[in-house]
Amino acid sequence: AARRAHLKVRGLSAGYGAFPVLRDLAFEARPGLTVILGPNGAGKTTLLRALNGLIPRKGEVLLDGDDLPEKTHEIVRGGVVLVPEGRQLFPQLTVLENLELGGWLVPKSERSARIEQVLADFPKLRERSGQLAGTMSGGEQQMVAVARAMVSSPRLLMLDEPSLGLAPRMVDELLAIARRIADSGTTVLMVEQNVKKALAVADRGYVLERGTLVASGPAKLLARSTVIRETYLGAQ
Ligand code: ATP
Q1: Beta-strand (E) ranges in 124-194?
Q2: Which residue intervals define the domain ABC transporter in the entry (predicted)?
Q3: For ligand 1, atom 23, which residue shows the shortest CA distance?
């Protein structure tokens, strides 16, 4: 069932100890696919970590009008799941075992049905369900990480650079998966450095530079904007 979650953020600040990284951010992730672009070190990962409760945050974060909890397990229980940069799978466990770990908060009676649904949505993983995750290619591992997150049927899925280090064909496949998930009713908030391809699949985009949002808009318009063309796409 489509749930169409809407994340609304106002005055968000976060950092590491006394070191501020994000300052007073305001943005939204509406139903669909929202991408946050920006250079290395802009604070993109920090933003997802703050929303996921891995580091403290200040400001207002509303999911469908309700305050997002501050502790990670409560955030996950509330339907917000992060696929971290670097995937963080259990390499010595099989694909299926990794998916089962994605169901830790799913009631036991629903777990096997959820995993069955995810294997139906990711047929490539069904073929590989007995393979050790650590022996898969980078793209396949990224797919497992996304599938693992989907086991808990999140309302909001956060993806941290899903295309990082992947071959172009796999980049396209992972971004198509993100699009498909957004179309099936899970709101997706994705951080990417692959500007052109990310804007081609996203509905809306934001540009984060040095901890501040400097541009935003519908993905198609943003792709044609001066800031994106000159700074990120190398305007011809
Ligand atoms: P990248 O794509 O390189 O991961 P990013 O936009 O995701 O870039 P962040 O990882 O969020 O950037 O880093 C933002 C800033 O926070 C950087 O200046 C970084 O050095 C700093 N930072 C990140 N992690 C920590 C940490 N654990 N302790 C202190 N500072 C950190």
Answers
A1: 156-160, 187-192
A2: 7-235
A3: 46
